[in-house]
Design a protein that fits this description.
four-stranded antiparallel β-sheet; 2 domains; five-stranded antiparallel β-sheet; Alpha-Beta Plaits; single chain; alpha+beta; about 25% helix
Length: about 180
């Protein structure tokens, strides 16, 4: 099933996240990734970015149901929108004198950052798309992963939309489901 990234701008109120998540669970869809943050410009607003896999028709219905919630300001399904998507992980990797230089080489190749050093482990921070995160984990797994903490996907529409098409035609400005007058 195709994966959908959906951005939901909501009023920053108690219980909003539960209501949004409830729309997915009540229809039997798993939320694969979920991030929520208060808008740094307007603390009365929060942005929820979630990733879920499912049939296009069902997810379209969920988007319509989200728009009916009183606390929802705007819903954008990034299905047909060029986006920039990122995740962040911190990985605590076992190291010894033999593997420390190997980990350093991997860290440099991925433009990652060592954020903590201990006698038998190092914690590395990596930011990138899902493929980069997966590749990094695959390379450090043989060294010995002690712990992983991973954010969900965050996404934002690209400033220039090169490949956005809907119903066989080019998306016109203002029809892309994105806020054109609001800093995102």
């Amino acid at each position: 099933m195709p994966s959908h990234t959906i951005s939901v701008l909501v009023e920053n109120e108690f219980g909003v996240l539960a209501r949004v998540a409830g729309l997915f669970s009540s229809r039997g869809f798993n939320i694969e990734s979920l991030t929520v943050n208060e808008d740094p410009i307007d603390p009365t607003v929060s942005r929820i970015v979630l990733v879920s896999s499912g049939d296009d028709q069902i997810l379209e219905q969920i988007s319509k149901q989200l728009n009916k919630l009183v606390t929802v300001i705007k819903v954008a399904d990034f299905k047909d929108v060029d986006t920039v998507e990122r995740e962040l992980i911190m990985v605590k990797v076992a190291v010894d004198e033999r593997t420390r230089s190997e980990l350093d080489s991997i860290v440099q190749a991925f433009r990652a950052h060592i954020v903590d050093i201990g006698p038998r482990s190092q914690t590395v921070e990596v930011t990138g798309d899902a493929a980069k995160i997966k590749a990094f984990i695959g390379l450090v797994r043989p060294l010995g992963i002690k712990e992983i903490v991973r954010t969900g996907t965050i996404a934002m529409a690209r400033s220039v939309q090169l490949n956005s098409y809907r119903a066989g035609g080019r998306v016109k400005p203002g029809e892309d489901g994105l806020d054109s007058d609001r800093v995102q």
